[in-house]
Fold Carbohydrate ABC transporter permease.
Amino acid sequence: MATMTTQSHTHSVARHATHSRSFLRPGDVLSYLFLIVSVMVTIYPLAWMVVSSLKPGGEIATAPLSVNLQTLSLHNYTTLLSAVPLWVGFENTFIVLLIQGATTLFLCPLAGFAFAKFNFRGKRFFFIFVLATMMLPPVAMIIPLLFEMGTLNWVDTYQGLIAPGLVNAFAIFWTRQQISEVPDELLEAAKIDGCSPFGMYWRIILPVIRPALAALAIFTFLGIYNDFVWPVIIINSDSLQTLQVMLSNLALQINNAQPGLTGHDAWGEILAASTLATVPILILFIALQRQFIRGILAGSVKG
């Protein structure tokens, strides 16, 4: 009996191994190779930037593709942070992210909830108006916004930097599409139990669309973090410059702070600053990657 059991187990293992070998088809091998090559091509510039930020300036110019472990150091970082107040750009960007991002993630889902689940006069007109604003190029709004900020005396202030981006048309459209997938029966049951409209949003809608909100948070973060045109127009003071504006003027600031600095050394410090600016984005994506992917795929498959 034991012999028969052993033979049966052996045949089962053999069939499983045969099935595993037959499962990996040539097409799958090509797909994996393509993905590996794509990942390497995508990651290589980022890896080169990080490694080059640790190299001496002369070595970046003479041997940009080689790596000498003995010459790698944090010299570019220490010199940069001692010469340029880069932390000011991080601080201002964080303030804008905190206020503008939090307001967007609070107000826009509420507007999306209203457009998705409530009927009111002018609903179709207002939603089409919101969509129409998405079709305007942002550059076309700069002059009207600048006149408006000037009338309010908000030029070169945090208010002028933050206020125009508090409500985002894409965020309203995104959350409206996600909330539309929530069954109306759930809201009707909550209404029968005496739940208020905001209570329905907080207790039913918000937990369901949490992956979509995570994806929206990443989109909002990237949009604010990488914004350059509006901050460079509305801000004149060095103390209110955001990170992207500081990075655009970094070479000039480095040369002014360090007279006689060679161009090679300046590039080493610029790469160090770029590496530091990339870290927050990587941390956010790594922390929310699962929710981001779920949010992107939300609504693509209907049961």
In short: Residues 110 and 201 are 8 Å apart (CA to CA).
